[in-house]
Amino acid sequence: MLYQRSSQLFAEAEKVIPGGVNSPVRAFRAVGGTPIFVKSAKGAYLYDEDGNRLIDYINSWGPMILGHAYEPVVQAVIDKAKLGTSFGMPTALETEIAALAVKMVPNIDKIRFVNSGTEACMSAIRLARGFTKKDKIVKFAGCYHGHSDSFLIQAGSGAITFGSPNSPGVTAGTAKDTLLAKYNDLENVRALIEANKDEIAAIIVEPVAGNMGCIPPQKGFLEGLRTLCTENGILLIFDEVMTGFRLAAGGVQELVQVNADIVCFGKVIGGGLPVGAFAAREEIMNYLAPLGPVYQAGTLSGNPLAMAAGLAMLQALDRDRSIFTRLAEKTAYLAAGIARVLEANQVTFTINTIGSMISVHFDAEPVVDFQTAAKGDNETFKKFFHGLLQEGIYIAPSAYETWFITDALTYEDLDFTIEAIDRVSKTF
Ligand SMILES: *Cc1c(COP(=O)(O)O)cnc(C)c1O
């Protein structure tokens, strides 16, 4: 496959957009080469500017759980656009999607809509700090909660109590309020709480990690966090931006029967338009302006086009709950097929899956946290990525990303993918 026009378009983009992209991972820096420019997408497929058709395993990094250009979502956006695209005033539509979300997700009374997952997580910790009147938060190495300052702290070396900024521009003052913990390691969290008695407002966690590959929580991890939070007056925040409305209608809270205090949403909840949201029980949500003292706002929050897309998406998922089992079956089929051909070709690997999320790691050891995720062989991943691209299959251009299975993928697409991986892994 040729990607000539994409390369040209990238060169033009680089002149006027930093790195040619509006979000860094799109630039292919981790795998080399130049990004592919999309012209359109339908169902399971992307169509690029060179006229190639690609089977898509990224799906806009999660939102398109029913496939691209899902008809009811597209129609809802078109219909709404004709009535005006933004008012900055309340609409009935906002109440309709809020009521549906509150019905689908366990343990929440009220929800507020914002414009991205970043905004949702940023607002959730402000709310948690205001509500608990404490400053510090705990986040886990390798978990991603958007690009706001408090979260751009990753594991430095070893077990550090105070985070160190890993992006210039994040001040030391901000970094000192973010404590880093190890995913799937309750003892580590307990020690942090002990060392920062009565200072921690919230623990924020991806209840199934999806931004260091896909890492499900080990048995007892989320339950343990719940207990530690309750015992210490700490709010537990589930960042379900990736997992919400994906792993179950009610997200991971429903899947593992553990209640969070605040839940963040994004991706699927917007049906492919820029939407985020955060939700909690009434007592916490009433702490937000205009009812309470914690300020949070947005000119385009609850935008009618975005709400129409999100509502059409949630309605589809609410109507047909069997979709989540269907997706999990496809994922299991794909995982088994990939394992079969990688084994046959003597490639060292670990595959993690849960529901419609899957990641392939080129390392034999179990991948349970950031440290073990980082061990994967990136040279093999690069060959894997570019090999699949040549076969017309698009996976994320980074070894740390989860693939997303959609309802639009057919078993023929999955078989083609497995056969392609067989061919590509013979060239490692
Ligand atoms: C994608 C993601 C975010 C950030 O959402 P944006 O819409 O990109 O700002 C936050 N948390 C998790 C778990 C995510 O996967």
What does this structure look like?
GO terms for molecular function: glutamate-1-semialdehyde 2,1-aminomutase activity. Its main location: cytoplasm. Homodimer. The strands form 3 sheets. The protein has a 7-stranded mixed beta sheet, sandwiched between helices. The chain has helices at residues 4-16, 71-81, 92-104, 117-132, 172-175, 186-195, 221-232, 251-256, 282-285, 304-319, 323-344, 370-373, 378-390, 411-425; strands spanning 38-42, 45-48, 53-56, 110-114, 136-140, 178-181, 200-205, 235-239, 262-265, 276-280, 350-354, 357-361, 393-394, 403-404. α3 (92-104) packs parallel to α10 (304-319). Helix content is 37%, strand content 14%. The protein has 14 helices and 14 strands. It is α/β, with parallel strands linked by helices and 428 residues long. Residues 116-118, 121, 144-146, 206, 210-211, 239, 241-242, 266, 276 line the site of pyridoxal-5'-phosphate (PLP).
Ends: how far apart?
19 Å
The computed structural class is alpha/beta
If helices are DSSP runs of H or I spanning 4 or more residues, what is the number of helices? 14
Largest sheet: 7 strands, mixed
Rg over CA atoms, rounded to whole Å, is 21 Å
Instruction: Write down the overall geometry.
Output: globular
Unreliable stretches = 155-161
Order of helices and strands: HEEEHHEHEHEHEHEHEEHHHEEHHEEH
Report the helical percentage: 25-40%
What topology, given as strand order, has the largest sheet?
Answer: 4-10-9-8-7-5-6
**Strand count:** 14
Sheet-strand content, in percent, reads 5-15%
Mean pLDDT, all residues: 95
Bound molecules: pyridoxal-5'-phosphate
